[in-house]
Amino acid sequence: MLRGVLDLCLLAVIGEGPVYGYEMTKRLRSRGMSIVGEGSIYPLLGRLERDGLVATRREASNGGPPRKYYSLSLEGRQSLETGVTEWIAARDAIDRALDLMKVEVSHD
Amino acid sequence: MIEFVEECRREWKRLGVPDPIANEMALDLTADIEEAESDGGSAEDVLGNSLFDPRRFAAAWASARGVTSPPIPVDPFTPFPRNRRPWFRPAVIAALSLFGLLTALAAAALLIGRHGVAVAATIGRRAVLPPPQWFGPAMHPIQRFVSGPTFSSQNFGPFALLALVMFVACLVTLAFVVVYWTSGRGRDSKRLF
Fold this sequence. Notes:
Chain A is an alpha+beta fold.
């Protein structure tokens, strides 16, 4: 489940506009997600690219070397929408389960 | 940091990643790390705990992208990939088994043949003696014809030794066939899982 969630987070960041590797890391970290601590995002990006969920192009960056920019493909956008829907359903189900547990705990 | 990227390059080379793709990944990695350092961070901000295992990181990235070559199996009996010579192992086993079987048959024939000659020699020697009552004197020429030339029992030694050597060769060959076959089955089952 966690692996799918990480993919979903990356797709969400890429869905905001073309972005390169380190920029993705910074955006995720600014939102409280430090997935880099567990490893790096490069293998995840590689898998998304291989599966055709992202398109890539190389562009010159501001004053730096050319960077590889990632953007969502059509399949990637559909996957993002499906993933968000499933995540919301799962999150609501978990919230309900936790609320139920809270009620049980309060009865004790 | 250069050392980390170089270690990744070596791993990609080992895995058969095409040079243009390896160069591209190395450039992306270098650029991201340099940017992180210019932001006041470190390579760990980009790589996480992968920083401490470059080979594993490089292999995971290349594998995720699907740019590694299939590994070439190492087999002392087949200098070429196994799937190019699927007939090799069965052919070796069949040839060695045939050799072992023929050796055993030849040794057995040698022993039985010598034994037969030895018996015939005994009969031949007995034929020189006066025939027993129930045999009759008319049987002597036929008996000599059937028994053929007489041999002495001293001739039997070298043939028995040769037969023994052939039996040993047969056993060694069959043992090798069993070991070869068993090791092949082990590798095949490992490949399945």
